[in-house]
Amino acid sequence: MSDASAQTFEVELATDYIETSTFVDHLSDAPMLRAVVSTDFAANGYVEAYVSTGFEDPFRDDSSEVGIEVGGDWEFSADRSLNLAVGRWANYAGAGLDAGDWFARIGVSQGGFSTSASWLAGDSDTVVLNADYAIEATDHLTIRPVVAYFTATDSVNVGVAAEFDLTERLALSVSIVAPDGEDAEREPRLGASLVWRPGQPD
Known about the structure:
- The chain is an all-beta fold.
- 0% of the residues lie in helices and 63% in strands.
- The chain contains no helices and 15 strands.
- The strands form 2 sheets. Strands 1-4-5-6-7-8-9-10-12-13-14-15 form a 12-stranded antiparallel beta barrel.
């Protein structure tokens, strides 16, 4: 991130709350609306904030959450980078600002492969190890298998996310996860969303 003035903004409307970046889990059956804004600072730093809500009881239901992340990205070559970040996720399931996790994360990327370790303190109290691989199936379709391991519960969550660019600003995303629950048998959960990125060039 070399442009200190760069900003991004996106809005997502989802059929339900499926998360494939950290927890790789199905968090709510209710439709969800989320907005994410990020801005760069200095040579490598960024700040990202998001808010999500359901519609049955806005900002107080199972799809509700807020978060802020401060971090930095460093590129060592054309396809190798390092990410360091800290932040706070809160209002889990609309339970207020005291419900959530403080987190710290270190991640590395090499080509299409990314891996990270996140320390969560709060409701989760665990270290989460993540790995995913971005497969550029076509110029408009990206498929990303992902896996997460939780040290506190010795559990593994798996999933796949696919994103298809409908236009330069609008994408269709489909995700399926099979979290490791209390029962021995995993229950796959499927969700879809429309993602609008108005800052993308025409």
